[in-house]
Amino acid sequence: MNTSLPRSICSGCLHDLKHSRRGDQWVVVERKVYNVSEWVKRHPGGRRVIGHYAGEDATEAFTAFHPDQRLVRKFLKPLLVGELAPSESSEDHKKNAAIVEDFRALKEQLEAKGLFRTNPLFFVLHLGHVLLLEALSLALLWNWGSGWINTILCILLLATAQSQAGWLQHDFGHLSVFKSSRWDHLVHKFVIGHLKGASANWWNHRHFQHHAKPNVISKDPDVNMLKLLVLGNVEPVEYGIKKLKHMPYNHQHKYFFLSMLFITITLLIHTNALVHFFNELYFSFEIKPSSLFLSLSLSLSLSLSLSLSLSLKSHWFVWVTQMNHIPMEIDHEQHDEWLTMQLKATCNVEQSFFNDWFSGHLNFQIEHHLFPTMPRHNYVHAAPMVRELCEKHGVQYQVKGLWEAWCDIVRSLRTSGKLWLDAYLHK
Question: How does it sit in the membrane (predicted)?
Answer without folding.
Answer: Multi-pass membrane protein
